[in-house]
Amino acid sequence: MHYGIIGFPLSHSFSEKYFTNKFQTEGILGCDFKLFPIKEISELPELLKTNILSGFSVTIPYKEKILNFLDDIDETAQKIGAVNCVKVDYDAVNKPFLIGYNTDIFGFSMSIKPFLASQHERALILGTGGASKAVKYVLDELGIQSTFVSRLPQISNCASYEMLNKNAIKNNLLIINTTPVGMFPHTFEKPNIPYEFLTKQHLLFDLIYNPVETEFLKEGKKYGTLVENGMNMLALQAEKAWEIWNAQ
Asked: For the chain, what is the domain count?
């Protein structure tokens, strides 16, 4: 059985290492997991002709673009408009049938819940890409009000980074980075927010897991802020994907 991940670039990805280790430690035979760094999502059909995959993960920048290539989509993934997990079935003539799911929802929900406290009533979601949609869905389910933040605020309920003043930080004690800013290899970058207004009441959650501690999280720790990276989320969503790929 062959699995993999599509995205571009993939130099930051731990998925191959995660699944290879899983196969070895759990004694799962006859399975492998590969990186497929495709520069355009249009390369996917050709990729599937030359690689007989049972399932694959989807990462930046294709979590929304993948929708046009699916034959079916899970109801929740359809609702939020983002897919990060694809199960591949084959018909009698070996034509692939792609079914899209979103396991980021499960991964984010389970990884952030242990850190939430009563003061985390409002949140800022940095970024408006595919991952941000899963985050928004989870926050809505938890009853946490949220506002997107983008360099180019073109959607409703979205602020610009220039609008993040002291009051904005004070009134949103949960700040989640869903952008790739600070991700390997650009580890010295960080989202442009006024960190000096952070407090011990804040929680910073970074979906990035490579590096383990981003500049975003380092800035938070300077002010005694509770911080968490995306490593646990990665593991949780990966296990959910494995469950989906192997469901009958």
From this structure: 2
